[in-house]
Amino acid sequence: MLIRAQALVAGWTGPATAALDFVLESGQILGLTGANGVGKSTVLAALAGRARIFSGVLEKRPGLRLALQTQDVPPVVGLPLCGRELLALTGATQDGLPPWLVGRLDERFDRLSGGQRHYLTLWAILRAPADLVLLDEPTNNLDAAGVAHLAGALRDLARRGPGLVVVSHDHEFVEAVCDQVITLREAVDVV
Amino acid sequence: MWSDLFLLPFLTGLCLALVLPVLGCFLRLRDEWLAALAYAHVAAAGALLALIGGLPPAFGGMASAALAGAGKRIFARRLAGGAAFAVLLLAGWAVAVLLAANQPLAEQLGHSLFDGQLYFSGAAQFALVLPSSVFAGVALWLLAKQLLLARVYPDYFKARGLRDWPVVIGFDLVAALTLALATMSLGVMGGFALVFVPAWITFRRARNWRNGVLLAGAIGVVGYIAAFALALGLDQPFGPILALLLIALGLIIA
Predict the structure, then answer these.
(1) I want to staple B85 with a disulfide (CB 3.0 to 4.6 A). Which of A85, A117, B34, B177 is the partner?
(2) Angle separating helix axes B4-29 and B164-186, nearest 10 degrees
(3) Does B235 touch chain A (CB under 8 A)?
(4) CATH code, A3-190
(5) Model pLDDT, residue A178
């Protein structure tokens, strides 16, 4: 078991999510989906230890190594940093990178297109050495080819052992990629 | 120029010309380039206070800058967005000017600190600057990955359970001590020029971080050597010549 949530209610200044139950094992992908504002990102932040847990229980395997990707864009504009250096920062491997990025790793990161930047920042987290990878809306800013490659990369990563939690508003993507899917409801409806 | 009279001042400045631009890259990475001016002014005030108190000015300058570097974290929440550096700059400047205005000894040293006194650097100053520059270079090399990671991926940094305060305090201390030493040798603005301009050019032109750090160091050394020779040849103060040369270099390259 990597993590187990029992009647977990998370939030920042007050309870903001419905109670949540799940167990995630190594090699599994859990999808969290639902309408805007139901607290998908807040749950992810609670799993990462950033948001508060107001009730319920969250158990984590001791020594769990986390990798967290948020929706915040890294402040790289104007920074002389190339893609290869970005991957080296998190210890991410280049193996499996899509062909449209492999040849651009030595270019300045802030001179890549928005989609290329997003995929590379995502890849630096996705392929960092970790036992549990937490991704918040990973399909944002990706075109169809990017989404298709990401789906394959997530399945490939899960086969190697880590567990993944994917927050996304894209039901189709979540259903296609994840082993279990939880659709979050408004906190007031459930609690 | 290579006589004993100028060799030690030249070597003292050369050490700083190598390390200050690299420090400038990390200050710019953290959006803290104003720190260069803040620590320099605090160091100047500390040096003057030490002089009046009968202590070595270099000790006073380094101690006050180190205290400011370590202490600014206490007020970080109240003085966010670079306000801490603005407050330190104003306080350092005000104390230094008041001391210089009221103490004849301090007035002379005050002028030297703000204008630079590189040509008066002797063996004692060089013996302080050389190991400090090596220490600063090694410390920055060791802290580089953590500083970059904390800046680019702050959430990942925290999720891994990495604590940023040892990295931040370590960096603040290195920055404060290096800038205090630079103020004692190159003056407030001479040191600031070497921190600000090479990093500014580098961030615009470098292809990657590694090249950027090397480029910044190279710009600092070339600018410094040219300014040293020019200032001696034209019998002009070193600080303004260095600043003008670096600005010209910056406008051409950037």
Answers:
(1) B34
(2) 150
(3) no
(4) 3.40.50.300
(5) 95
